[in-house]
Amino acid sequence: MENEALISTSQINDEFTLMSLFFRADLVVKLVILILFAASIFSWTIIIHKIRLFRSLKKISKQFEEEFWSGRTIKEIASTTHHLSESPIKYVFLEAVDEIEKS
Q1: Which of 54, 77, 73, 75 is nearest to 65 (CA)?
Q2: Which of 41, 70, 92, 102 is 20 to 30 A from 48 (CA-CA)?
Q3: CA angle 98, 101, 103 (to 5 degrees)
Q4: How far apart are the first and last CA of the chain?
Q5: Closest Cα to residue 33, out of 44, 22, 43, 19?
Q6: How far apart are CA 85 and CA 94, in angstroms?
Q7: pTM value?
Q8: How far is it, in rounded angstroms, from Cα 20 to Cα 86?
Q9: How far is CA 75 from CA 81, 82, 88, 101, in A?
Q10: Which residue pairs from 66-70 have beta carbons closer than 8 angstroms and sit at least 24 positions apart in sequence?
Q11: pLDDT averaged over 10-residue windows placed end to end, the chain, 103 residues
Q12: Dihedral (C-alpha) 21, 26, 30, 36: value to the nearest 10 degrees?
């Protein structure tokens, strides 16, 4: 009796694994699962890319901030920060310098 219960329990457990449920599902269900899986991979790729991008922008902005607070003149800072091309703070700074020069 116990052996029969163990066998039936193991059969039930085998029937409800993710893979067995997937392979027994209809075509529409399989397609939806595959589309959701692909969308998840795509989303995580974007998330990881954005995390890396924001980390690099933060690092570049910190370098610009150190240049800015170094005590040099505005013109010196504007001419020596060309290597920090992607810094968002640098673009704001350069626009401010342009406005100062126009007035």
Answers
A1: 77
A2: 92
A3: 110
A4: 95
A5: 22
A6: 11
A7: 0.65
A8: 50
A9: 10, 12, 18, 10
A10: 68/93
A11: 56 76 92 97 99 94 88 84 80 87 85
A12: -100
